[in-house]
Design goal:
elongated; five-stranded antiparallel sheet; about 35% strand
Length: about 375
């Protein structure tokens, strides 16, 4: 079995060594040269160009048919088995070692050698100055530290760091947000990522929002109309819809009541951002009063009511039932173009039972015990229908 050969250059000693075989060291500087053996993929030939064969012309051959599996580096690692080198990589390794120059310095990264040289070139925006005095080189590295940071973006889901050179780095922190109250945050949440709105300004780049508590049959949300246009109802656009023209597009809603702040009316217009699936047949003047979106218990449809002190005035009803016993109510603000800052949503003043005070709630029919029915019949308190 052929013996292993440890081949390496030593700049301090100025020689290329062949440990493990009786081949004397050779000078550095490209005197030794390795090439592939013709017709072979696993053997090489190594020459010494400063010495010649008997004919005085051809360079001396140090290794005529060396298997590449024999070659090891200075740390005794096998180039092929341990490092996975190919024939060409073994050739390049030997030639790189042979071409070392005296007083070269080895360069390593994380303990692995990446090359050698006697000139160091510092590049990159972080290098602000290099100076040499006597035998000491001084390299000044200019960092680019963070100078300030803000939380921004739709739903406050982006951490924006401003660096020393005035450039910005944006970090998505959506996954770090929770849907619990934070400071003075609202009861509105973005559908797309669950982020909670810190205030009533609705950035449509974050998508549609919903009121954080579901409304059950027989309940309503009471709110004063704000100074901005309003869209309220049942969303049907799924996740991922963003931008004011898409969020307000009626095709993304099953039911939508559309309030215009320009003329203070609940509008009948069936424009792209107009009403959807409701029985409004004419514009309805509001005088900027208080309104409620009611989940009617009997019809199981959404209804829009005007709330005026002790009186409720019916405005409109959805064309189709909700199809569930409870639902989120979705909101959007503004018209076709988003303003700066974004227009605001109404402040929900009350989430309550409509018409009657609810004492209990159940999705399934309740069967009364026979003895209770009998007592109600005797007392005459059992309804006759």
């Amino acid at each position: 079995m052929s013996r292993a050969v440890k081949i390496f250059g030593d700049a301090a000693l100025g020689s290329l060594f062949f440990e493990g075989v009786p081949v004397p060291p050779a000078p550095l500087g490209g005197v030794v040269r390795a090439v592939a053996l013709d017709g072979s993929t696993n053997r090489i030939r190594v020459f010494r160009d400063d010495q010649f064969q008997k004919n005085g012309v051809d360079p001396r051959i140090l290794f005529k048919r060396m298997k590449i599996t024999r070659v090891r580096d200075k740390s005794d690692q096998r180039l092929v088995e341990d490092l996975g080198y190919t024939q060409q990589q073994v050739i390049d390794y030997i030639n790189d070692e042979a071409n070392r120059k005296a007083n070269e310095v080895d360069f390593q990264r994380n303990g692995s050698q990446v090359g050698s040289g006697n000139t160091v070139n510092f590049t990159g925006a972080g290098v602000s100055a290099v100076s040499v005095s006597g035998d000491v080189a001084t390299i000044t590295i200019a960092g680019n530290p963070v100078t300030s940071g803000i939380v921004t973006g739709a739903g406050s889901t982006t951490l924006r760091l401003t660096l020393n050179d005035s450039s910005n780095v944006d970090i998505d922190v959506t996954s770090m947000r929770s849907t619990t109250s934070i400071g003075s945050s609202t009861n509105y949440f973005f559908l797309n990522n669950g982020a909670q709105l810190a205030n009533n300004q609705h950035d449509k780049d974050g998508g549609v929002v919903f009121y954080g508590t579901k409304v059950k049959r027989g309940e309503e949300l009471v709110f004063p109309v704000s100074s901005a246009a309003l869209h309220v109802g049942i969303w049907n656009g799924g996740n991922g819809v963003t931008g004011i023209s898409n969020v307000n597009d009626r095709s993304n809603w099953t039911t939508k009541f559309r309030y215009s702040s320009d003329d203070t009316r609940w509008q009948n217009a069936s424009t792209n951002i107009g009403k959807q699936g409701v029985d409004i047949s004419t514009d309805i003047e509001t005088d900027a009063n208080t309104f409620a979106v009611r989940f009617d218990y009997d019809s199981q449809k959404l209804q829009l009511w005007e709330i005026d002190t002790a009186f409720d005035w019916h405005v409109a009803t959805a064309n189709v039932a909700v199809g569930a016993t409870e639902t989120y109510i979705y909101f959007s603000s503004g018209g076709s173009t988003q303003t700066t800052p974004p227009s605001s949503l109404p402040g929900i003043t009350t989430h309550r039972s409509a018409e009657w005070e609810r004492q209990s709630y159940a999705n399934a029919p309740v069967v009364l015990p026979f003895i209770l029915v009998y007592k109600m019949m005797i007392s005459g308190s059992l309804p006759d229908h």
